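Exercise 7. Given the encoded structure of a 697-residue chain, write a plausible sequence.
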């Protein structure tokens, strides 16, 4: 469906829900009959005839925000199974046949059924296919518990309608039901998060608005990342389905798996912020809490013949779906993969210089820039493909690509015409070897406090100070340097300027340091370093804007951890598939559950990185997407390494190329700390996210 159609559909669903159901608190003593009839009157049960999963999800999300369990997805699935023109589909559309799915069926009894008092028929789908039934509901007994309206145990009558389906059709139906429940839970949790953020903007304690408290900001930001990740994954599944992609089932399962934990994290986090305000039934919080937990538990209870996400990953040779779905992106992927293979040496390795040259010769560095600056305005899909494939294949140009995201884009936005003419060709040629001169002995994430000074000296500048933890400072040709040009400026960040300083300038000296990862960083000393006027990038005292744009690019590049982890996951699965029970145990094992969790989180990270790259390359910046990708990437890197060690045991600690993962797992674990503290610690990034949500400093 088109965006305008979806917007209109959302408005229709919201209006009907508000008129005949109300808000979340209506779940206390709800009657679904009137809403069911109204939804049918609005034609929303006819979405199945259009096979409009995108429209269904829009309605499901509105139901989630009202904590309403109307089983419209069950009706959608039933109508699809029995056929658009069937008697069943027509009766569902006009509201006379009211369907609810029954997952836990034993003989003539089904348990944990929602909306049973308003439904007329239960949909029974065997996981392995064969006969799908619509059986009458002869009685329903409410079961007390978290779910409100209550679940029911029901007695099943005759199968009034049956149809034979194959295993694939049955599996697709069950996956759709799981996805719809997950999307509803995610929407319910998202509303509670929104209410918590608004509460944090006005609630005062200890003389301050609680949204200014660090703990509240950290929690709100963590919830926001889960909200965005859930939405991206659901959208990805819907887009794959709409595009008739063979990957849509896996995309849907990744979304459901992530939301199983993510929605509950959001809900609890929001409750912690709402505190007592959201604990009582007069507030939406308790009802959203019930909805979230009821939906994720029911979604997990729908068993597939293929097993869990981990079972699918382990027992079949599938990979996580990519994100470039359009024709141009996929065509370009073939070009990139061809170039990567052409640049390999005979033993499969890369010669760094020749490999980078192969990418440069094709004009792919800065190819998203305007034509007048050497680019070709490459599409978002192409840029994401290049970034992902270079990182995934551990191609040397993946590091060179950082010069485009970190420096090139900022020079394009803030540089003078002369700087663009001089520097952008260097970036496009892959010759911009640089390091970042931000951190200082007393300055890490708080860049507004830089003390390194730059003072006018004739027609140039004289720089004095010290930079710390300068990765690549021993090999860089340039330093992208933040210096204070107005010591009296208020606020602090107003007096900072950015310079591009050649590392061979007299007065620049370095002292190497070895990181936990094995990389070399430096302490960089700047003693009366004189640079010309054209070393200044952007306006005098206007460096904060340049820095934030460059940092957005840095966090996107740091999001390249997604490509690294994807490669490690694929390498690990290749090993696991040789002897699954040895490495991850039988189906249902705790190790398989951990594997599924990190796979789903990795897919969420990839979705955020793609979004951040799109925002940055469009020139709009990536104020929210980039720090989200940075935070999730760093935390997932740590979790990924720990889970791999739990699965592999002592052998995962070895760096020997012959061990599973070729030593990349222990290296990744050592490097993971950098992804949490580099480019501004995750605590600081969550603070940026919190402020983007509107919370006060």
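Solution.
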């Amino acid at each position: 469906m088109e965006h305008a159609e979806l917007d209109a559909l959302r408005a229709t669903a919201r209006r009907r829900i508000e008129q005949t159901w109300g808000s979340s608190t209506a779940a206390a003593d709800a009657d679904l009959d009137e809403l069911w009839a109204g939804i049918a009157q609005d034609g929303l049960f006819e979405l199945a005839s259009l096979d409009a999963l995108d429209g269904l999800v829009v309605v499901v999300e509105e139901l989630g925000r009202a904590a309403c369990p109307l089983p419209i997805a069950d009706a959608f699935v039933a109508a699809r199974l029995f056929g658009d023109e069937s008697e069943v589909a027509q009766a569902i559309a006009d509201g006379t046949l009211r369907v609810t799915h029954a997952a836990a069926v034993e003989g003539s009894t089904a348990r944990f059924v929602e909306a049973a008092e308003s439904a007329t028929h239960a949909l029974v789908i065997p996981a392995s296919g064969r006969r799908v039934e619509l059986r009458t509901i002869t009685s329903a007994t409410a079961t007390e518990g978290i779910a409100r309206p209550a679940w029911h145990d029901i007695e099943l009558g005759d199968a009034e309608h049956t149809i034979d389906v194959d295993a694939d059709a049955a599996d697709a139906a069950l996956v759709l039901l799981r996805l719809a429940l997950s999307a509803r839970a995610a929407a319910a949790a998202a509303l509670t998060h929104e209410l918590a953020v608004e509460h944090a903007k006005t609630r005062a304690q200890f003389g301050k608005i609680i949204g200014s408290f660090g703990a509240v900001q950290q929690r709100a930001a963590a919830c926001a990342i889960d909200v965005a990740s859930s939405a991206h994954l659901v959208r990805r599944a819907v887009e794959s389905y709409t595009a008739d992609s063979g990957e849509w089932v896996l995309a849907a399962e990744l979304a459901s798996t992530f939301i199983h934990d993510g929605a509950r994290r959001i809900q609890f986090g929001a409750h912690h912020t709402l505190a007592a305000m959201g604990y009582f039934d007069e507030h939406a919080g308790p009802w959203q809490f019930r909805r979230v937990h009821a939906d994720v538990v029911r979604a997990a209870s729908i068993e597939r013949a293929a097993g869990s996400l981990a079972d699918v990953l382990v027992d079949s040779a599938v990979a996580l779906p990519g994100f470039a779905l359009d024709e141009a992106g996929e065509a370009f992927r073939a070009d990139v993969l061809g170039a990567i293979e052409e640049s390999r040496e005979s033993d499969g390795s890369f010669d760094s210089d020749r490999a980078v040259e192969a990418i440069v010769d094709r004009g792919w560095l800065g190819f998203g820039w305007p034509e007048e600056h050497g680019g070709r305005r490459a599409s978002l899909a192409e840029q994401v493909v290049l970034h992902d494939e270079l990182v995934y294949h551990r191609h040397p140009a993946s590091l060179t690509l950082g010069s485009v995201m970190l420096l090139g884009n900022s020079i394009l936005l803030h540089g003078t015409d002369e700087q663009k003419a001089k520097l952008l060709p260097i970036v496009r040629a892959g010759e911009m070897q640089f390091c970042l001169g931000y951190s200082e002995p007393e300055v890490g994430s708080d860049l507004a406090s830089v003390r390194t000074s730059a003072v006018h000296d004739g027609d140039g500048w004289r720089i004095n100070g010290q930079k710390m933890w300068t990765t690549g400072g021993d090999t860089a040709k340039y330093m992208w340097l933040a210096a204070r040009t107005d010591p009296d400026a208020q606020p602090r960040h107003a007096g900072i300027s950015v310079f591009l300083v050649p590392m061979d300038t007299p007065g620049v000296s370095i002292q190497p340091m070895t990181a936990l990862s094995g990389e070399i960083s430096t302490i960089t000393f700047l003693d009366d370093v004189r640079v010309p006027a054209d070393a200044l990038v952007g306006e005098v005292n206007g460096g904060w804007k340049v820095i934030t744009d460059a940092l957005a690019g840095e966090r996107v590049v740091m999001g390249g951890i997604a490509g690294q982890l994807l490669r490690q996951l694929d390498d690990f699965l290749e090993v696991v598939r040789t002897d699954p029970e040895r490495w991850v145990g039988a189906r249902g094992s705790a190790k398989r559950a951990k594997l599924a969790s990190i796979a789903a989180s990795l897919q969420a990270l990839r979705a955020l990185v793609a979004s951040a790259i799109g925002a940055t390359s469009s020139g709009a910046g990536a104020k929210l997407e980039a720090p989200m990708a940075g935070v999730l990437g760093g935390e997932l890197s740590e979790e990924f390494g720990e889970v791999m060690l739990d699965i592999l045991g002592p052998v995962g600690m070895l760096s020997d190329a012959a061990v599973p993962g070729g030593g990349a797992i222990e290296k990744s674990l050592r490097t993971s700390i950098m992804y949490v503290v580099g480019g501004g610690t995750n605590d600081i990034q969550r603070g940026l996210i919190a402020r983007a949500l509107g919370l006060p400093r």
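Remark. The longest helix spans residues 167-202. Students should compare their own answers with the one above.
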